[in-house]
Amino acid sequence: MSKHSEACCRVPPVVSEGYEPKGQYIELDGLKTYVTGPPDADKALLVAYDIFGFLPQIIQGADILATGDSGQSYQIFMPDFFNGSPARMEWYPPVNDEQKAILAEWFKEAQWSIHSPKLPGLLQAAEKINPSIKAWGIMGFCWGGKMASIVAGDEPALFKAAVQTSPARIDANDAAQVKIPTMLLASQGESAESVKEYDENLKVSKYVERFEDQVHGFMSARADLKIERVREEYERGYGLALDFFRTHL
Are the C-beta atoms of residues 178 and 153 closer than 8 Å to each other? Predict the structure, then answer.
């Protein structure tokens, strides 16, 4: 796949601040969930956010995924796995022992093994709302990127394609287990060596790119969209994701 995404040319202009969501919040299998996109779409994406939850950058990203590709729309479901208690921006990265302790305590309830088992029920509930859904993809950001990598190996029947960006704890051993087409959009926050090893261990259709001048979370909570270069790469990343889903979903 070319680094110059066709969908990038169709992604709507990115709003640098004051973004107004296009979707709505509903309860889905017991979790508050942001839903956007056509309610009768035949393809859907489960979006797994980063540890900071429903911030404007990731809400805007969900809306872009829903209708940013003029040739294929998606209904997007982004559950609040953390039940209204995401991590706080000031905790990360921790700079003292107190912040380290707070973050470590918070992560006890954020283990992927706790939240990944919720996915089948969430998809079933979504399909009751929209019976037209015939295929699912998953896109994960940072914390959610790790979830996407795990379920692409452990639960390949749930999703037909996976995209992860700035994944937490990138692990080549996860890549070896992946069974569905996978895209990895890494940042400077993931080492070039770890990205290379993950890429080499993938045995499925794939696209891997490291955005070397972008910070960890450049497509979600840490995207400073007032900066032109950040905004350009944020937009390009979503365009690449849309191209990948259009090809594999």
Answer: yes
Measured distance CA(23)–CA(47) in Å, rounded = 14
Low-confidence ranges of the chain (pLDDT < 50): 1-4, 8-9
Q: Is 166 helix (H, G, I), strand (E, B) or coil?
A: coil
212: Cα within 13 Å, side-chain hemisphere: 2
Residue 198 is encoded by which pair of tokens? 């993950």
Q: How far apart are CA 37 and CA 95, in angstroms?
A: 39
Contact 167, 199 (CB under 8 A): no
Q: CA 112, CA 116: separation in Å to the nearest integer?
A: 6
Query: Which amino acid, residue 183?
Result: M
What pLDDT score was predicted for residue 13?
80
pTM check: above 0.70: yes
d(CA 159, CA 151): 8
Task: Give residue for tokens 């490291």.
Answer: 210
Q: How far apart are CA 199 and CA 183, in angstroms?
A: 10
